[in-house]
Every structure is written in C-alpha cells, then in structure tokens.
Amino acid sequence: xxxxxxxxxxxxxxxxxxxxxxxxxxxxxxxxxxxxxxxxxxxxxxxxxxxxxxxxxxxxxxxxxxxxxxxxxxxxxxxxxxxxxxx
Amino acid sequence: xxxxxxxxxxxxxxxxxxxxxxxxxxxxxxxxxxxxxxxxxxxxxxxxxxxxxxxxxxxxxxxxxxxxxxxxxxxxxxxxxxxxxxxxxxxxxxxxxxxxxxxxxxxxxxxxxxxxxxxxxxxxxxxxxxxxxxxxxxxxxxxxxxxxxxxxxxxxxxxxxxxxxxxxxxxxxxxxxxxxxxxxxxxxxxxxxxxxxxxxxxxxxxxxxxxxxxxxxxxxxxxxxxxxxx
Lengths: 87, 230
Prior knowledge:
A: three-stranded antiparallel beta sheet, 3 strands, elongated, B: 25% helix
C-alpha cells in the first residue's frame, strides 16, 4: 500500500518565532489590521510504501522525531492517506 | 608531544583551513577529516568547523549529524576526547544530541557578521580552562541561526553546573541567558557561536581567540598522554 504524507513542522508553543513576528509586523502596512498570531513552519510532502496504515504511521512518526523536526523547539503533525490504485 | 587535532570537513564547511591555520600558529598539528570517514583516526581532539554543512537544508546540522564520521565523534567524546564545535559545528553538536538545546534563527532575522564581546563565564571546559574567569574577549560572529534556545529546566541546569562557558556582553541574537557557548557535563564537548580562529592575529583585528584554542591544544595534549598511558 502507498500512502501520501504531509508533515507540518511548527515551532513549539512558547518558542519565539522571529519569522512569524516579522511577517505579522509588516501586515498593517498592507492594510491587514486584523491578522494576529502568525507562525511560520514547514510543510514536507512525500509518499511511503507500507503493508498497512499503522506501520506507515509509525515509520513516519519515527522519521519526524529523528529527523524532520527538532523536538527541542519543534512539533510535527502528520496527515496521511492511502493513495488509491497502488497495490 | 604535539597535539593532533582532527578538523572535520562536511560538504559545505568553509572554516576548516582557518582553524588549521590558527592552531598551527600555536604549534598545533591538524589534519582534515572527511565527513564520510567512519573513524577519527589517532587524533587527540576534534573540531567541527563553521560553514553550511550539507547546505544547512532542513535545519543547520540536521543532516550533518547523520554523516558517517559523527558516530566516531560521539564515541571519541564519550571516551573523554575534547570536541569543539564552532558556529555550524555547534549546531551540529546540538542536533547530534552531544550538547543540549537548539540554535534558532536570530532575533530580528539578520545574518550577523561582526566582532562581539564575550565574557568567560566558566572555565570548566576544554576550551576555557586557560582563560581568566570574567575576562572579556573580542571575537567575530558570523551566523543566521545562533539564537540559543532550550527549556527553562535545561537552562537552569546549565547555569547550576557551570556549563555556560561564554556569554555575550551585549546579546546580538536573542540567545537565552546571553549564551554564546556551552559545554557538556564533563566539560570535554564545547559548542560556541563566535569564531576564535578568526580572532587569531592582530591583522584580523583581534588575537583574543588564541587563549581558547590554546586551551584546546593543552587539553588535546593531555588527552594524547592519557591515551598513551592507557
């Protein structure tokens, strides 16, 4: 089975986000006065082949923990769904 | 005996020859170690130099920590060998888990390239034991991700265990606790954002980095004697 994966890596709550803060500060100049709480992260997409969804999910979780996110400052969220038509 | 220092070259490192040159000025012998090697050989100390290992993709140091030589560096460190990470090398050491915390983008999002004053906060490390506590050194920084971050508990432990080795006099990048450099519990693994090799000659504007590199060479010499005795 093949699964399509989206990993979103975000800075943990409480960790200062200089990019988000800079973007937020620039918005009033463009007329967007109502925007608050800008946080910048990364979106990483890939596919993974695995015998079942639980195996795919556990491998992706390990990949996130060991590599895609730095647990000292980042959280990761995984969205995973099966790609139809792949045996 | 002359201390032999292994300077690790990752694809994208760019300060390795500066480190070799500065150590040579102090009588140290260096050799370049390729990141793909699985051993550090018979060196007495290891330096991870500055640069952009593996292009800094994903996060600085995130890919370098998986370079084959890093397992050998970890084993060398666990055996008490002196290991110093400068700038990108510091980032690699945190990603590899050899030092706590992480290096975030600078507060203000500026790439900072300038001399700064740093204060010797602890002499309990291979890089600072020959320096005078409280001494202020003028050493250049050159980084985008030098904003040291960790949880409060880790910060408290670093302070209590005298593992903050260098602090910025005037914090340039938002680092927690003005931290410019830290060491591990044993003091043999040190990471710092300033570049002591770039403060190694009056022609460069400062020679203040030499006391740090001299400490490392002395620790490396002691390490060499210890391993001969052992």
